[in-house]
Amino acid sequence: MKKKGMLAALSLLLLLTGCWDSRQTEKLSIAIGLALDKGEDDKKVKLTYQFLVPKKIGQDGSAQDPSKVVSTSGNTVHQTIRSTALKNFPVFSQHLQVLIFSEELVSDISLEALINQFIRDNSIRRSSEVYMTPGAADSILKVDGASDPASDVIHSISENRASTIKLLKPVTLNDISIKMQSDLSYIMPKVAIEKGQLQLEGGAVIKNNKYHANLSPSQIEALNLLTGNVIGGVIDSRHDGHLFSYEVFSMTHRVRAMRQNGKYKFVVNANIKGRLSEDWYLGEDSFNDQYIKNIEKSVQKDIKKRVEQLIHVLQHDIKTDVTDFSDNARINFPKEWEKDRFNWDKHFSEAYIDYHIKATIQDFGTKGATKSR
C-alpha cells in the first residue's frame, strides 16, 4: 500500500511540473513586427521591433496603439536580437506577424544571410510574412494606426485579395527558404507609406538573393492573371471608347509545359467568370446577347494585352522568372530540369509563352437577371 501511495504522489508531482518553464507576459517583449535596415554607427544591420505591450491593452478603455517600437544596431542579426535585451525584456518571437526589409539593405547584403538566423531559430514561425519597402523599414512600424499596430494593419491588408487583383499572395519565411534552397528568383509584396497611411503597392523581385527590380500594382494584376492567383477583384476596361468594370467571381487556370526547338514552351489556358458591374455607355443593352459577347471580347482582349506586356517585361527587361513556371518544367522534364535549374532565369527568358483567356459574363447586376452561361 505504501508503494502505491508513493507512486500516486509522484504522479501528482509530475502533473504539477507542467508549467515549470512558464514566463510572465509582462516580463517578455512580445514581437509582432520586425523591420531591417542598414546599421548605424558602422554596424551592418539595424533591427527595429514592434512589441506588444500587455499593460496597454484595454487600458482605461482607451483605443491607443498597444505597442512600442525599439531599434538596435549590430553586425549580425542574432547579436542584434540579443543586444535588444539591453533596452528591453528578452525578445519573444512566436507571435511575429511581419518582417520588413528595406531595398537599400537587401541591395547591399544577401537576403540569404539576413534571414539565416530566422530560418535556424525554431521560436520564429515559418508562416511570418515578409515584405520589402523602398524607404526606411523602421518608418513603416512607426506609422500611427490609431488603435491598431502597423504590423496588424499590414497583415490585414494582405487578406484583401478577394477584393482586388493588384495584391500579391503573401510570401512567408518558409516560401523564401524553399526558393533559396532551389536557387530560384522570386517576388515579395512591397509596403509603403502613402499620405501617412500604410499601403501595399506592387512587388520587389529578388534575384541571386538581392533586390533586383520592382513590379507596379498594374503589373502585379497582370502577373496574377498569368499565374491564376486570382480570388476576386475588378478589372476596368473599355468597349467602343466607354469605360466599364468587370467583377471577377472565379478563375480556373492550367499550364502545359512542352519543349520546342530545344527551348521550353508554356501554354496557359485561363477561364474567368464574373459580372458586368458598371457600364458608362448610356446606350448599353445588357439583355442583348451580342452586346454581352462584345463586352466579353473586350475583357479578353484587354487581359491578354496586359499579360503579354508583362511577359515581355519579365523575359526581356528584368530577365527573371517570378511566375513559378519552373515547377511545370521540373515536373514535366525532370532530366532537362536537373541541368537547366542552375540557370533557370536564362531558360525562362528564352521560353515560348502562349496565353489564352476566356471571359464569361454571368450577371449584370440590377440592370438584368442572372444568366446561366
From TrEMBL:
Chief place where the protein resides: membrane
Residues annotated as domain Spore germination protein N-terminal: 21-192
Family matches, as Gene3D superfamilies: Nutrient germinant receptor protein C, domain 1 (6.20.190.10), Nutrient germinant receptor protein C, domain 3 (3.30.300.210)
Protein name: Spore germination protein A3
Keywords for the protein's UniProt record, in alphabetical order: Germination, Lipoprotein, Membrane, Palmitate, Signal
Signal peptide range in chain numbering: 1-22
Top-level taxonomy: Bacteria, Bacillati, Bacillota, Bacilli, Bacillales
Family the entry assigns: Belongs to the GerABKC lipoprotein family.
Domain Spore germination GerAC-like C-terminal: 201-365
Membrane topology: Lipid-anchor
Subcellular location: Membrane
A Pfam family this chain is assigned to: Spore_GerAC_N
